[in-house]
Design goal:
OB fold (Dihydrolipoamide Acetyltransferase, E2P), phosphoprotein, single chain, five-stranded antiparallel sheet, DNA binding, three-stranded parallel sheet, Rossmann fold, CheY-like_superfamily, alpha+beta, LytTR_DNA-bd_dom, 2 domains
């Protein structure tokens, strides 16, 4: 439990809302939280095993089973689990499972809004100089956060687009499948990362720093796309 807690705390887009050693305690307290998006659930628990408990969880909550016993894998998918992690759990495996949950919620949100997934991922609208601008996502290189506003750096544009929005709000607008935060002041488009030089991402003459707190998430992405 402490290991998973540490993984959650080091992952920028996750927030721990509770942890429980008892299924009965979890049944009592989980409904108090307005939204529980992901639930890490051990199969072997006192009073009620994880498979039985999962049937009582809201279908809106994605369940990731954690266990030291591989023989439960098939049963876990019968209760519509999102993933199944065998102990000891590495941070790489943890992050891959969490990213599955993120992608599931993004697709669900688009479906609920009646928006085609490809269309929804095509562009964003931002306010700039009293105008509402449509920006194609595939043209964004990176976003730079300043004190009270952000700069959106776009391909083939001599000047960045300025907008009075926080980095956190901008990060929430962008699909995590395409963008990654590498520093408290920088979000980059994954597919635009072409050159890394001494711990920095290079965009032409600009060098984007990679901070220690975001380095591991970026490294996992790079490793998964390396040959």
């Amino acid at each position: 439990m402490e290991l998973l807690k540490s993984y959650v705390e080091k992952t920028s887009f996750l927030r721990l809302v509770g942890r429980y050693s008892s299924a009965v305690q979890a049944m009592t307290e989980i409904p108090l939280h307005e939204e529980v998006h992901v639930l890490f659930l051990d199969i072997q628990m006192p009073e009620l095993n994880g498979l039985e408990f999962s049937r009582m969880v809201s279908p809106e909550t994605r369940i990731i089973f954690t266990t030291a016993f591989g023989q439960y894998a098939l049963d876990s998918y019968k209760v519509n689990a999102l993933d199944y992690l065998l102990k000891p759990i590495s941070y790489v495996d943890f992050l891959q499972s969490v990213n599955k949950a993120v992608q599931w919620y993004e697709l669900k949100q688009k479906a609920d809004n009646g928006v085609d997934a490809d269309e929804a991922d095509d562009c964003i609208y931002v306010k700039s100089d009293y105008k509402l601008l449509r920006i194609a996502l595939d043209r964004i290189l990176y976003i730079e956060g300043l004190k009270d506003y952000i700069k959106i750096h776009v391909e083939d544009e001599p000047k960045a687009i300025l907008s009075l929005i926080s980095m956190k709000a901008m990060e929430e607008k962008l699909p995590s499948s395409r963008f990654i935060r590498v520093h408290r002041s920088f979000i980059v488009q994954k597919s635009k990362i072409k050159v890394l030089d001494r711990g920095r991402i290079v965009f032409g003459k600009e060098y984007i720093p990679i901070s220690d707190s975001y380095k591991q998430e970026l490294q996992i992405y790079l490793n998964s796309h390396s040959v």
